[in-house]
Structure formats: structure tokens, C-alpha cells
Amino acid sequence: MSPPSQDWTAPEDFEFRALERARNYRAALVREFTPYLRGRVLEVGAGVGQFSARLAALPEVQQFVALEPGPRFCAEFRARHPTCTLIEGTIDRVAPDSEWDALVSINVLEHIEADEEELAKYRRRLVARRGCLCLFVPARQEIYAPLDRDFGHFRRYQRRDLGAKLERAGFVAVRLHYFNGLGYLAWWFNFCLLRKRHFDARSVALFDRVIFPVMHGFERRIIRPPLGQSLVAVAQVR
Questions:
Q1: Where in the sequence is the domain holding 111, given as residue range(s)?
Q2: Which residue from 15, 71, 94, 198 has the least number of CB within 10 angstroms?
Q3: Alpha-carbon span 157 to 166, nearest angstrom
Q4: Are 174 and 217 in contact (CB under 8 A)?
Q5: How many domains is the chain partitioned into structurally?
């Protein structure tokens, strides 16, 4: 289904528009989490659902529920994915004693000031089944740019600090590594040095089609980068 026409004006819309063009990027991120997604899966902060249909269609996923607190994004989500179950709200709309095998949080935690409290809430929903948290966040505070502030990001994450926060919340990290090493340099150049306040959609599409597949293949098969634009974390309830 083609997405409905959208007036992309707010900063968070720019973030969604960039991901709209980044098809290989989105597919690669879903592959990172696929081995850990089975049974009952909850996606927190689904936005307009750019990952949701892929997650729901994974063969080991028996039940998929998405959460999104923004009414406008919920409307867009329902238009795109009418068969996906969507709850309008935050993690607090899901009973603390509910049972989930996996929880997916993609580009959400950085928007929450009390991020360790949020992680603890995730754990409570996973503890009954000793489920997995699949977490994706922007990385490296030294490239925190004006655009991050526009997006409502409280922070970018260092690998060690994120690992410590997961541990304090009652998780054990199964995987914790940087993602998109070249993207780190691109973000620094465009949004820290040049201080741009929006994405160039055509550049994103070109990067996604030509550069990212080669770079990510190297990162995934040969060696993970020492730095990256983002962090991938998979953590199990302790």
C-alpha cells in the first residue's frame, strides 16, 4: 500500500521522511533483530509504522501489537497498516503483568528524559517470559547536533553507558554494538559542522541504494565499527 499524502513540516516528520527513503537501512535493522523476535511481540513508539509490517510478518511472530502515543501518527499508521493491532499511548497503556516474548524500541528511548525508568517498565512486561528487548538508539554524544534537539532527543548514547543503564534496569546485554559507521561521519559533517536542520531526501535515497548495502555487509560479516551513527542492543531479562 502506498502511504497517504503527508505534509512533512514538523521536525519529527523529517525523521520519518528520511526513513521512508531508506528501505535497505530499515530492512537491515529488522534483520539485526529477527533472531530474537518470536511469540508475542510489542513495538513501543511505532510512529507511522515504518517497521511494523515487517516485524508483524516475521515467521516466528505469533502476535504483534504496536504502541504509539501521537494521535496524528496513529491515524497515519492505521491508514498504512489497517490489519496491524495499534494501541494509542505509551508503555503505561500495557498492563505491567502482561506477558511478552520480545519488545522492540526503535529511535524512542532518546526522546524520554527518564530513560532508565522507561527501561524498567520494559523489563516488567518481559519478565514473565524472560523475553528480549530489541533496542535501537542514536549513538555518540559528541555528534549531538541542533537537529537532535529539533527532534526532541535528550541525548545520544555511548556504548558503555547504554550497557550500564540496561544492567541497572535488570537486563543482560546479549548484543551491543554500533551501527552505520559511515553514517557517524555523515551526521557529524552535515548536522554538526554544517549545522543543517533537515535531511536531503535524495541524498538519503542515494546513500541507501548505493553505499549502505556495501558498508553494512562489511560491518555485519567482517567487523563491527568502533563508532557508529546508532547503537543496536539486544538484552535479556536477568
A1: 23-142+154-179+223-237
A2: 71
A3: 12
A4: no
A5: 1
